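Narrative summary of target 7.
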Amino acid sequence: GNRGIRLCLSNEDIFTEQLKALLMAGADKKLKIMLPMVTRIDEITRARQLIEKAKSELISENITVSDNIELGIMIETPASAIMAEVFAKHCDFFSIGTNDLVQYIMSADRGNSAVEDIYNPYNPAVLRMINKVINDGSNAGIEVSICGDLAANTDFTEILLGMGLKKFSVPLPMINRIKKKISDINLSSAQQLAKEALSAEDENEVIKIIRKG
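Modeled conformation, tokenized:
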């Protein structure tokens, strides 16, 4: 649908005002701007151009703005996940948005009860796609984090650490639980668990591997 970065770029005047607000709010601070629903390089390029335009206009009005800006993208579409290696050249960080990513990979609307059994984060296709994005980001030297329901599901914490993930974005009530889970994990064991899960053929096998681990 027409949402996320698509909606922003189809309403440039409104988007520019939002960017100006961010630049002013982040004055004299490190500012991180994240673009949602990215599927094409030109969306990142156009957003970066608008950020520079907004910045120049504010400076011309003697308004102090952030001079330390990082531009990142949500990886929540198969297009951005598949092209993560390329996208990493054009942005400063990734955040893997698992809710949308799962439903797009599985072609199953998470709000449709008729396909709720297909919307399944334990499916190996989901794990392999996430693993690819983590590796692509790591190889490019950019930060990769994960958010959404999967990030807060302790079933996946060890596997994600084994894949090389270093940053989780979770709801406030889950922070202590995730921290405790991480503190109890042996990294070598996590890497072996991730390897086994990534070689699984279906979600039932993934669940068995997780339960065993």
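The chain has a mean pLDDT of 96.
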